Structure formats: structure tokens, C-alpha cells
Amino acid sequence: MPLRLDIRDPDFVARFEELVHSKRETEADVGDVAKAILDDVAARGDAALIDYTRRFDRFDPAETGLAITDAEIDAAVARVAPETRKALELAAERIGAFHARQMPEGFEVVDGEGVRLGLRWTAIDAVGLYVPGGTAAYPSSVLMNAIPARVAGVQRRVMVVPTPDGVLNDLVLTAARVAGLTELWRVGGAQAVGALAYGTESIRPVDKIVGPGNAYVAAAKRQVFGRVGIDSIAGPSEILVVADADNDPAWIAIDLLSQAEHDAAAQAILVTDDAAFADRVVAAVDDHLVTLPRTSIAAESWHRQGAVILVRSLDEAPALVDRLAPEHLELAVAEPDAMAARIRHAGAIFLGRFAPEAVGDYVAGPNHVLPTARTARFSSGLGVLDFLKRTTTVACDAASLAAIGPAAITLAEAEGLDAHARSIAVRLNRR
Amino acid sequence: MPLRLDIRDPDFVARFEELVHSKRETEADVGDVAKAILDDVAARGDAALIDYTRRFDRFDPAETGLAITDAEIDAAVARVAPETRKALELAAERIGAFHARQMPEGFEVVDGEGVRLGLRWTAIDAVGLYVPGGTAAYPSSVLMNAIPARVAGVQRRVMVVPTPDGVLNDLVLTAARVAGLTELWRVGGAQAVGALAYGTESIRPVDKIVGPGNAYVAAAKRQVFGRVGIDSIAGPSEILVVADADNDPAWIAIDLLSQAEHDAAAQAILVTDDAAFADRVVAAVDDHLVTLPRTSIAAESWHRQGAVILVRSLDEAPALVDRLAPEHLELAVAEPDAMAARIRHAGAIFLGRFAPEAVGDYVAGPNHVLPTARTARFSSGLGVLDFLKRTTTVACDAASLAAIGPAAITLAEAEGLDAHARSIAVRLNRR
């Protein structure tokens, strides 16, 4: 059974705070292994990539080549059902349109003292996208990571993907084609991260690495951070559904399970003001579980990580939501916009009874790479800004430097940085 | 002598790449010590803070209280020279005005399928600013870190600062007052980072920690990352000056030294197209060094890390600049804007002969917390966006879900995520 809390319980605050701070992830400590692989790739380049791929993926890229060829992608696309390809194209178009609206504008102004100040945005030159192999290879994630980079204007958009036993994933390659990736390499694990960070004879280094991966990939990304940029390391998925009694319990139940089915460590939480409705949702979850293919994962998540929180009034929900700062938030209530306006911390909000979270995973347009584990308090989902950076500009002439320079000299001297002070003073004929 | 390279040399490319990849920083590995302190603060709270402060800062905060009081700040402000206070106020005003221009706007649109999509920005609730003690306590850095948080709308803006022997730094406290910090605590080191991340009886936890610190502080910030947000860990400062022969060599020389004086590991590089001018700059550096108070630091930086790069034409400069991706870039040339337009990677650009980098350190308005060690390839200086986060919104009704839902069902089924598919299908009366 999922945890059940009632805001009227005398120990509610303590038990709710326990839920807020519960740790669901136990990331294996594989830093040493990842470091050894990274060092080896930095030292031996392609030869190391080939060795690790032989060992971990059980095929010889010296025979196939490290690069996935256009012909291989063509063949993969041809094998994918037309309906699926069209769905990927619709998703790509909608993701592209939403992210295009995020493109920021710089500015340049001349202020009252005659100082010309500016801020401009430029794209990162080259980005690497890690795509996991096996069951965690989601074509939708290829779109969500690659399209914002393309919209931002990143020129080199490089995908690395392990191909266990040399088998290519048709859906992933089709998504890569649809998302406009410019290079694809059949290499995965920490060795792929090393190739992207350090470069090899075949693979030129990139400036930033994004995308999900297993514990080795996460550890490798942490270690190359600084040399290249990385995205945040995502934890298990979460959904929080705020629902009143006017919902169909079966709809709410399947929404909870749509995150629970990702991972036994995923978390689904229901907040409602109606105990009988909560009971109906719990019963409906059990009904769905009988017929879901991924029932064992979803059931373990729901029973171990799930929670049902009963409040006196849905007015109490926003404060609880902000404490939990969920990755996904569904507001299945009569006035979802009014409630959303009272909530500060959530990765993505789904408004109303006809916006199940899954529509955002694929085709709505916003990104599905979102902050987990309460990090929505201080971070954001992936977006165009993650593939751009800012440069500020300052232009002075003699007059404007004379206007603001003396204050800078005063502060530099107060800080004991005389060369700083002098670099301004010489231009003001002060020395 | 600084390194001297000429683009006409046959080994130029190799030696330039060596410069690009030279490591200047040797961060001590103090992760274990930092972890022990963090764990202790998490476990014992204020008692641990008091113990470490007694040991490392040689005074007893159980007597003074951990909080720096308003009366103490008043007294500090009163002791600062009025000219210095006015300079801090001018700087704060200009920094505030520049950062206010960075405030982003969200959007909400209804697309052709009737799906309502939005993106909104909210401020982080609480931010901690670490301010170093001793000689690295720069009031200008207090302004540069605290003002963007205030502009962003962060409600709790908390400063921690070590006060060795219990001595308060009047300039830092005055800057804190001018920057509008809301809480000040006399605690530093990894223990202060622990207090900000985990909270203690006295200090409530924050959501993000920014600001420079020593190796212990940096290691502690790395370790609490995830629980709270952190800014990037800055390396030694850098300046790259592109200058033609029409400059006063003494001006360019002092600009190079204005970064060199920060740290023996700082780096100052001159790119010019005139060998005789380069010689005059090198001679002028030596002249300045004779009279600079921080001559030993600046001389060590210049002689060990400095470089003079001779190009055939300044047309060749932008490509070299982009490879180095400098923190600070001065373009002391006849047409600085035209050259800036050709450069993609730099933290901040100073345009023309009257814009020494030091004016940007204090009063120009843009932030002086900037990406070092080539990270300007993928990251930005501190700004208002670092204190905000995005939430996306999706609203569908039955009709718009019917328009885009089937594609999502197709993709969810292709990925084997049946609960995802079903959460849409139930709403479309498909099951």
C-alpha cells in the first residue's frame, strides 16, 4: 500500500517532512571505474573505445566502423512503421515550435553616463547527446535533447549510443534523423563520455554533454564537468496529482501509474480533499495493475514510493506542492489556472482534466527533461537556454570613463588592487 | 618572461594548443575533510558550527551570537569612508540597472490544435552567498553576487562570512547593507556551506549557494550540489587583450597586470600584430611591476602564466580568442565592435581603448563573476537567470487532446510504456 497521510493527523507535519526528504535513489559508487575508463580513452583514443565496446557491447567496431552511417540510418527509418515515423515528426515539429519561442534576445543600451552596455547570446559550438541502449532507449528523449540544441543554433550535434551485440535501434536512429543530429557514433558507457569530452582520432570533442545514462555514464559526466558542460543528473521520475472528487478515479489512477511504470524508484503522489475519492483511486490503481505489462515495476513503485495525502481543502495543496517541488504536477481540479498561480516550484504543470502528463512526454511541445528530487526549487527543465551562453559588453569613451571611473578607482584601492585602480587612472591622466 | 608565440612559427599550432590546454589550477583534494565537516553540521547543527568556528576562526560565537546584528552593521557602515560608501552605492545602482534588463518574460500561447502552452519564470525562494574572509574578502563581489538575486526577486538572501578572531570586515558589511542582504552570519568554511545546505537551529536552509571560497568551500559546495543548487566553481582569473600598435603600451601593460595581480595562477595574454609594440608592452609591464604593491604575485603570474602572441594581422585574432574563450577580453583596436562580432566565446568583452577591464569589476554594471578556464565555450557569467527557474505548462481540453493524443499513444506504445498510452486513451474513450 502507498503511504497514506491526512493533514488532520497530529503527526502530519513530521510524516510529510519525512516524505519530502525521503531518498529514493541509491546511485552506485562507480566513480573509480568511470575514471579509469575516462583516463584510458584520453590516453588511447579510438583504440580504447574499440576495446571497451568489444568487452561491454560484445561486437567489434573496428569491423563496423565507429560511425553509424547514413545508409544504416536510411535502413532503420525504412523499417519503422509509417505511423510511428509520422508521430515522431509531429512531436519534433511541436517541440521545435515551443522551443523556438524560448530564443532570448540580447540588448545594447547607452546609459546616462554615456557607457554603452550590452548582453548578447551565442550558441555553444558542439554538443554531445548520450542516448542509453537497451530498454531505456527512448526515441522521445532523443527529440527532447536534440531539438533544443538545433533551435539554439548549435552546429555540431553529436549522438553517442551503445549498440549491444551491434544491434541498432531503429526507433532511436529514426528519432535522430527527425531531430537533425549531425553525427552518430555506436559507442556508449563512460567510454563514450570520454570520447565526447577529450576527443579521439575519430570523434572530435564537444563543449557540452547532455542526456540520461546509467550510473557509469552519470559518474563519467560528473568527472568531465568543467572541461565540458553537462546537464543535471536526473533522478527517478515523479508525479504529483492534485485531484478533486469530480475526476474519474480510473483516469487519475492511470496518471499515477504512468510515472510509476518508469522505475521502481519512481514516485507517484495523490493530493485530494475527499477520502472516498482517494479510496476509489487506490482501487482503480489496483485494477489497472492487473492488466499493465509493466505491472511489477509500477506496483513496486506505487506500493513503496507512492503516497496519498488527504487535505481538508484543496486550498492547502499549493503549500504542500511547493515543499515537494515535483518534477510533474497535474492539477485535475475545476480551476487549475488559479491553483497554478499559487504554486512556485514544479518542473512542469498539467492543467485540467484533459492534460495527462504523458501528453507532455511526447507531443505537447515543452521539454520532458525536468528537474527531479525537489531540484525544481532551483533549477529548470531542459530548454534552448541550456545550449546558449551570454557575453556581456562594456564600451567607454574618455568622457564616460571619466564619469564612472573614479568610483571604480576608489573601490579598487579599498580592495588593495592597485593595478586595477591604475588601469583606470592612467586613462584619466591621473598618474 | 612570458611565453612568446608568433603565428608564423612552424610549431605555432602545437604551442598555441599547449597554451589553450595548460592547467593553471591545482585544487587541493580536501573532499574528505569537507565531507566530515558537512556530516557533522548536518548531525549537530549549531553546536558543530560553534565548535568549528572556535577552532578555525579563534573566537566563540556562543558569546557573540552566530548572527551579525543590525547594530554591528550600522557601526561598520559608520566606520567606512563616505567616498567608499558612495562608490559602493553607485556600483550597486549600476549593477542593479543592468541586471534589471535581464529579467526574462514568460509566455502563454494557444496553438493551432487548441493546446494552451506556457512558460513562466519564478524566483528561487532562498539563496546563500558565501563571502571569503581575509584578503580575498571583496566588497565588490558581495554586490555582484547579491544584487542579481535581489533583482530576480529572491526573498531570503543570506550571507555567510568567516570573521577570523571575531573581527568584522567593515567594507564587506557595508556592501552587504548596500546590496540588501537579509541575513548575515559570522561563519565560514565548509561548516557554513553545511549550514546553508542542511539548516541548523539558527540558520534555515537555502535552495542555492553562490560565491567564491577556498578549496574546502569549493569541495563542500560540490558535495551538497543536488540537495541545493550551486554556481560554477571559478578558477584563477584571466584576461586576453587584443591590441594594435596605436595603443599606449603603458595602458595595455597595466590592464594585463590588473588580472595578474589577483593570483599567481592568473593569466594575462596579449595578442598583437606588431612585434615592436609587443616589446614596448613587455617593457612597460616591467616598469609597472617596480611600483605595484602586489608586485610579487603579479610578476609570478606574468612570468609563469603570461603570453604574448604575435599575429600577421588582427584578422587572425578572433579564431585564437575563440580557442582560448577568455573570461575577460579587451579589444583595444580601432574597430572593436566589428571584431567583437566575429568572436563567439568570451565571458565579457571590453570595447575600445577607454574600457579597461577593471571598470567592469566594479561599476560598469555587468557581472564580474565570469566563466574561467575556457568554460565560456558553454557557460555564462552570473546573472538574474541564475536566481530564477522556469516552469512549463500544458492545458488541453477534450478536443485538443483528441488532436495530439493519438501521436502520443503511438510513441508511448513504441516505447513500451503502456500506462503512458492508456492515460491518454482513457480520456479519448479508446478503452
UniProtKB/TrEMBL annotation, chains A, B:
Pathway: Amino-acid biosynthesis; L-histidine biosynthesis; L-histidine from 5-phospho-alpha-D-ribose 1-diphosphate: step 9/9. It holds the Pfam family Histidinol_dh. The active site is at E327 (proton acceptor), H328 (proton acceptor). It comes from the Bacteria. It is an enzyme of class 1 (oxidoreductase). It catalyses: L-histidinol + 2 NAD(+) + H2O = L-histidine + 2 NADH + 3 H(+). Its cofactor is Zn(2+). One of its GO terms (biological process) is L-histidine biosynthetic process. Substrate binds at S237, Q259, H262, H328, D361, E415, H420. GO terms for cellular component: cytosol. NAD(+) binds at Y130, Q191, N214. Zn(2+) binds at Q259, H262, D361, H420. InterPro entries: Ald_DH/histidinol_DH, Histidinol_DH_monofunct, Hstdl_DH. Keywords: Amino-acid biosynthesis, Histidine biosynthesis, Metal-binding, NAD, Oxidoreductase, Zinc. Catalyzes the sequential NAD-dependent oxidations of L-histidinol to L-histidinaldehyde and then to L-histidine. Belongs to the histidinol dehydrogenase family. This is Histidinol dehydrogenase. The gene is hisD.
